[in-house]
Structure formats: structure tokens, C-alpha cells
Amino acid sequence: MDELQEKREARIAELFAALGEDFDPEFDEALREIEAQIDRIGTVERDYSEEAKRGAVLLIVVGHQGKADVTAYTRKAPRSTRSASGSSNGTGAPRPLYDARMTEELSRMRTVALQAEVAKNQHLANAVLLDALLPILAESHPDAHAVQLRASTDIQEPAQHFDYNTREMVSPYAGVADLIAGAPKKAANRFAWVLALDDADIARLLAACTAALIDGRHGKYADPERLRSVDRIARAANLDMREHWEGGIEFFGAITKKAMLAALTESCGPAAAENCEKMPKDRLAEACAERIPGRGWLPPALITPEEPEVEPEEEAEPQDVDGEDIDTDEADECPFAEAYNDHDEHFAVAAE
């Protein structure tokens, strides 16, 4: 730094002697190069080794204004090398009781039941719709919401793929079937028809339409914020899936033996599960269909979680993550790092 400062002062003195006070340092290439070298003092240029790259993840977040924030994190070991307790003994994570397809289908049924509850509660439906629309005025980038502003026609018939429910599920549109039947098909005629409706019929239709927009499906890449919104509405509606659904032989025959034994343990006690443990899968499904109904048992996807603590309204301070070291201990604090590890195989396939 001392050497560069001496060069800079010497060059300025040389320019001053030649041009006087009117010289502009911006137009002198030699002086600009010296100042650029001064600016680079303290900046370390590094190149990560191949070993470091294999054990790391680079997070690039592009903001709404186009500014990119780049952070390097040390990646955790893949799930295949970690046990359920987190140790690296090669046992891998335990297989979940319910696969993604079953979880999504159960959440589809829960969605229909929730739609039915909201459709018959006009005050709740208005609150749900306002909660979904209010962020349009109050926030620039609102969180995901249970209400999806599109028709959820693929949710209306939950039994079109599986016939698990032993009870006839209530349609969210049953209460306005007479009004819907009389609605004109053409847009211009329909608008005139809506204008002529009385307030009571408008309220009934609004409740049913709001309910139809709720999407509570729990897919593989479902937005967690949308699912939390679904749970909030379910708690407000006092949704009890035991009033809408009960597992039958079709359901138990479609899940694993481990899941069936877990259901027997939860509903009938450990002894019942031990007595059935040696049964083949088809007989175990029959046993579950005989013993579990009537006991109020539900699979996890149909249970509404308890209300969490109230979230504080204070906004978190923005953190500057530019230029962090690749071996930082903040890997566990990165919300994307664990998701990257969980879907590592998916990303690899997508990259190929």
C-alpha cells in the first residue's frame, strides 16, 4: 500500500507540473491503474478445489430489482450416508409410512371436506376470501394462500382415482345447486343474472365459490405457506375429518404393512398390532378394515395440527450475505441448504 501511495503521489505531482491545477485525474490511464491496484488491496482472489466444490452448494438469489446475492455454504452429507439420528453409518433415512401419492390423495379428500365446511359458513367464507385478497392491497409480494384464484375442478371429485372413503362426502356445491342450475352459460347473460340476485343468494354463491377456490392438496412440491394457510382455515372451520371420512378395505389395502400396523397400534393398542404382525398383507388389510373403523382413527394427512404460537409482527433485519466463506458454519441456517440436500437426486436428474 505504501509503495502504491508513493507512486500515486508522484504521478499526481508529475501531472500537476505538466498541466497545472486544471488536470483531471479521471483522464490519466496510469493514475487510474494505480488507484485500481489500491482498491484491490485486501481482496483475496481464490479458486475452490474440486473437493471443496463437491461438498458445497452455491446459493444465488436474484432480487426483484435484478440484484444477485451469492453465498457459498458447506453442504451436509447426503441422506444416503446418514441415519435417522444424523450419524453417518450408511443406514439411510427411514421410509415414510405413507408415500407421496397416498398423502396427496388423502389431502385431496380433506380439501373437499374443508370446502364443504366453508361453503356452509358465509361469515367464514367472506373472511377467507378477504384474507386472500387483502395482501393485494397491503403487500407487494404476498405469501402463498390456500385460496387459489382459479377453478379447482380437479379437486371436486376426490374419488375419481381412489375409492377409499366409506362415507359419502358432502359436496361444497350442494347448497347452491339450485342457483347454479339457473345460471346462464353466456358471460353477458350471466352478469345480468348476477346483478338481479338478492343479497342472500349472492352471499350463498360467494361462500360456495370461495370454498371451491381452496386448494389443500399436499403434493411433493407443495408450498409450505399455502399448507399453513389451509390449516388455519381448517381450525377456523372446526374441521373434523372423522365426520367426512373413514378408512375401508380399499384404503388399507393400498398402504404398506408397516403403516397398517402403526394404524392398529394407534387405534387398538400395541397388543392388537402384535397379534396381526405375521399376517400376509391382504389379510392384514381385512383385519384393519374390521377393527379400526368406529374408533376415530385418522391418517396423519387428515389431521389438522394444533395452532402454533402467534408469530411476531416485527420484521427481521436484512442480512448481508455477500462474500461469505465456503466453510461457514451457517449452513444449517440457510433455508435452502437442507432443501437442496433433500432433493439432491432430483436436481441431478434434472441437470442431466
Describe the structure.
This protein is mostly helical and 352 residues long. It has 3 domains: 2-40; 50-95 and 313-351, no CATH class; 100-245, no CATH class. It contains 15 helices and 2 strands. It has a two-stranded antiparallel sheet. The protein is elongated, with a radius of gyration of 31 Å.
Give the secondary structure arrangement, pairings included.
Layout: H1 2-19, H2 29-40, H3 50-54, E1 56-62, E2 68-74, H4 100-119, H5 122-138, H6 177-182, H7 187-195, H8 199-212, H9 224-236, H10 249-254, H11 257-268, H12 270-276, H13 281-291, H14 335-342, H15 344-351
Antiparallel strand pairs: 1-2
Helix pairs in contact: 1-2, 4-8, 5-8, 11-12, 11-13
The gist of it:
This protein has helices at 2-19, 29-40, 50-54, 100-119, 122-138, 177-182, 187-195, 199-212, 224-236, 249-254, 257-268, 270-276, 281-291, 335-342, 344-351, and strands spanning 56-62, 68-74. With 352 residues, the protein is mainly alpha-helical.
